[in-house]
Write a structure and sequence with these properties.
Shape: elongated
Helix content: 55-70%
Number of strands: 4
Strand content: 5-15%
Number of helices: 4
Order of helices and strands: HEEHHHEE
């Protein structure tokens, strides 16, 4: 998973988290304002049945589903960041992301990686890339290849 994909997952999960929190807040405030809850002091002891109550409870359920999905997307982005940094020659980023995430600070680990983390996608050094040779049909790989031995080339002649 490249860093751009990890950043995309991270940012989209933040948008989902914000949207879920806004929806939950608005639905909860509307429920309180319209006396949907039966209150005993500060405690909710029941819900008045009705179309508005069921609609607002459905919106609260949807908001919680969106928030949980955003949290899972954050976790996937963290796993991607950890796996992406595992291929780096220096294991500092890998260890830091792993430890911070295991300390239940996945959001902070993702935020640090998105802001300053390296992309662990393997870049082939130019010394490992074989040169291209010009041929009549275009360019082809000029890396040394094993030559085939022509076994039996003379076996069909004169035996």
């Amino acid at each position: 998973m490249s860093k751009s994909v990890i950043v995309k997952w991270f940012l989209e999960s933040l948008i989902g988290l914000a949207g879920g929190l806004v929806l939950l807040t608005v639905a909860g405030a509307l429920a309180l304002a319209n006396d949907v809850f039966i209150m005993d002091g500060p405690d909710v002891v029941g819900v008045k049945s009705g179309a508005l109550a069921w609609t607002l409870m459905g919106l609260c359920g949807l908001a919680m589903l969106v928030i949980i999905s955003a949290a899972l997307a954050q976790f996937v982005a963290w796993i991607g960041a950890v796996l992406n940094t595992a291929s780096l020659p220096s294991k500092t980023w890998f260890v830091v992301l792993l430890v911070v995430g295991l300390l239940n600070l996945v959001f902070i680990a993702n935020l640090v990686y998105v802001i300053a983390g390296p992309d662990g996608a393997r870049v082939v050094p130019s010394s490992e890339v074989p040169p291209l040779a010009r041929t009549p049909n275009g360019y082809q790989d000029a890396a040394p290849t094993a030559r085939r031995a022509h076994v039996g080339a003379s076996a069909g002649q004169g035996n």
